[in-house]
Each structure stands twice: as structure tokens, then as C-alpha cells.
Amino acid sequence: MFHMGWFLQTGFGVYGWNDRWSGNVRADIGKPHLFVDMAQSLERAGFDYMMLEDSSVLPNIYKGTFESSVKNGGTIRFDPMPLVPLIAQATKNIGIIATLATTFYPPFLAARLFSTLDHVTDGRVGMNLVTASPHQAAQNYGLTQHVEHDERYAMAAEWADVVTQLWDSWEADAVIMDEEAGVFADHEKIHTVDFEGKYFRSRGPLNTIPGPQRHPVICQAGGSPAGKDFGAQYADTIIAAPKGVEGMKNYRSDITSRMLKYGRKADEAKVLYLVSPILADSNEEAIAKRDKIREAQASNIDAMMAGMSYFTSIDFSQFDIDGPFPDLSDNNGHKSTMEDLARAGKTIREAVQKRQIAESVELVGTPEHVAGLMDEYMQEAGGDGYLIASSVTRNNIAQIADGLAPALRKRGVVRDSYSHDTFRGNLLAF
């Protein structure tokens, strides 16, 4: 069996603005209804979690204007934290992961917030840890420019250390709630942390009690060596997009060796590979649908240039799209993403057209055909599951939850019920 999740690529944001299947976007924007509907559908389908990406910058790097950021609403983000309890209230089992930037969130604030959310969600919350990349995001928090790439991950490792210590500042049996003695908690089992690191310090303890999970689930998606090291040390689930089955196998092997280096077992972190299934009633119809999608993506070079500008904090409008792909090996942003693009083509145009979407394997066909491919690829790659990265529309949600998921369940490769009460418990169930 393998795990399933959904990566909401623009978090609590805008999806498919003005597209045919985007639904009532005007009424959905900034409201929980679409995401609550989605969570209920994915829970019915047996998904482990939904992960809300986030960003705190409205970039004007590309061409020096906000046009590319707001034309289609693709970089609009609402804070995902208030959405988490609303989704939890409408569901019973699915995990809910919200993104936060370790560079900008003080450790005590994050530890206390997620301990609180762990209680509110009855043990179903997770945090996706990112270091953020654009200089403009850093400037929103008072920095002149962003911290250097590898140092951000060194900071993140220290951040995760102090947050974990704060979660553990109450011993597991500190809360006794002895009504006869009139004692809520044993004060001798609560401790200061007194953390003094290179980047952070915190006295502790938390003034919240341990949640049902004690340690909320940690998710991470770094693809660089520094990012993979961080994930191997701290993550419970890792998002990955290596290319092809061989790449998936190599990635899992790499993460496993890094985990062993940190004294962890390989099954303590679940690696989920990004995919965007294209489904239809026949394989031929699905292929035609894919070709139409790819053609539209390849023709929208301007949007891809804007995305690359965001990832690197470099205005790509200065480059000739038919000239040699620029050397960005020392950029301070998403290093693995830009390295993948550079390998995809000799020019920007060629790279964009060949690497139109970040996914590990192409899944195109009927639900039954795609389910068979997913089963075959996972057995060969040896990973832990898939993370859907399709656009969040009710049409796409229904195709996955009510078309693909039942086909997977018939093959016995995904769960048909939840065996544990907490997100962590279900994630580690197999």
C-alpha cells in the first residue's frame, strides 16, 4: 500500500481564475468552502493529507511590475493558519499541513501555534517547513536581502531543534488533572528550555499543554543537498519530484542513507512523489487532453519567465529567450528547480517547453489505466506514495477522489479506512 496527499500549489489562494472549470471563483476567493469541500472529498478517498503551500510576497521582479503576479491571481495568498481549524471541524481523519517559513517565524511562536492547532484539530495538523527564497519576501520582514541558501537550511535545522525542545518542555505525564487533589499539572515535570544557539534563543517552556501528537507532523520539500539533509533529519513526510522511476528510486535511496546518518529509520519519513494525473473516459481522450494542456503551457512562456524570476530573484525579461540558458548555479533561490530547468534545454524557450510541469512520472489515461501505472511505478521505485499537484478545482477534485481513488482501492494499494486517530498515526501505519 502507498500513501496519498494533495499539494495545493498556491495554498489558500486563487485557482484557475477565469478558466472553464474553475467554478464560482469570485465567491470562493478568501473563503473556506472550496477547501472544506476538497478535504471532505479527499477524506472519502482515503488521502493522508492536504498540504497548503504559502508565500508572503507579491513579487514585481519580472519586468519590474506586479502585472504577472496579479493578472491571473496566481500569487495571491491568504494566510493558511485560520483555514486549518475550519477544515478540521468539517472532517474527522485527514491530515492538514500548513506552510510556514522558518526564516521569518520565531520558534516560540511556531511551537505554541502548532501545539494549539494540534489540540484544535484533535491531532491532525502538520507544518510544511520552508526557508523561503525571494529577496522581496525577506524585505517584508525587515531584512535587506535574504539569507544565503545553505545558511538558511542551517538556520532551519536549529529552528527545528528549538521548536522540538519547546514541544518537549512538558513531560508526557505532566498533565494529571487530579480533580480531588485540585492539581491540573505536576510542576516538577515542566522545564525551561534555555536554548542558546547561533541563530535563535528561547527560554521556554510553552504555556500550552502537549497536543495529541505531541510533535505535529513535519513536511519538507527541499531538493538541494542542504534541503535533503534537513528533510532527512527532521521531516515525517518529504515532497519530491525526481524525474522518472529510476530518479524516484535514486531519490529514495539518497534520503534513506541521509536518514541513517542521523540515526533515523527509513520508514520514519514518507517520501511522496509529485504527479498531476490527466484522466478521461478513454486513454485516447486523455492523451488528447494532455496534448491540449501541454500546448497551452508551452505557449505561455511569459508566465514561466515570471516564475523563474520569482524562484531566483532575477528578472528573466533581461534574457533572450532563444539565447543560451543563463548560468544561475549561484542563485540564492530554488537551486534544484533551476538546475532542472537548465538541464531541460539549451535555451529558455526550449527549457520551458520541455519542462512544463514538475512531476515525477506522467500519468495519462482512464482511472483504471493510471491506477495500474501508479502501482507499477511505486513497486519499482520503492517510495511511499504520491502527492497530487493538479489545480484545485471541483472538477479535478471529483476526478481524483471519485474516479482515480476507487480504481486504486480496487487494486488494494490505498487504504479503505483510517486505522488511527491522529495524522501521525495514519502516516506511520504502513
Automatic annotation (TrEMBL):
According to its UniProt record, which protein family does this protein belong to? Belongs to the NtaA/SnaA/DszA monooxygenase family.
Chain residues that bind FMN: D54, T99, H149, Y153, S224
Q: Which residues form the Luciferase-like domain?
A: 30-384
Which keywords does the record carry?
A: Flavoprotein, FMN, Monooxygenase, Oxidoreductase
Highest taxon in the source lineage: Bacteria
Record's keyword annotation contains Iron: no
Xref: SUPFAM superfamilies: Bacterial luciferase-like (SSF51679)
The family database entries (InterPro entries) matched by this protein are listed as: Diverse_substr_monoxygenases, Luciferase-like_dom, Luciferase-like_sf, NTA_MOA
Say if the entry is tagged with keyword Cell inner membrane: no
Q: Tell me, what's a Pfam family for it?
A: Bac_luciferase
Q: Coiled-coil annotation: which residues?
A: none
Q: Name one GO molecular function term.
A: monooxygenase activity
The record's section on NCBIfam families has: FMN_nitrolo
**Record's protein name:** FMN-dependent oxidoreductase, nitrilotriacetate monooxygenase family
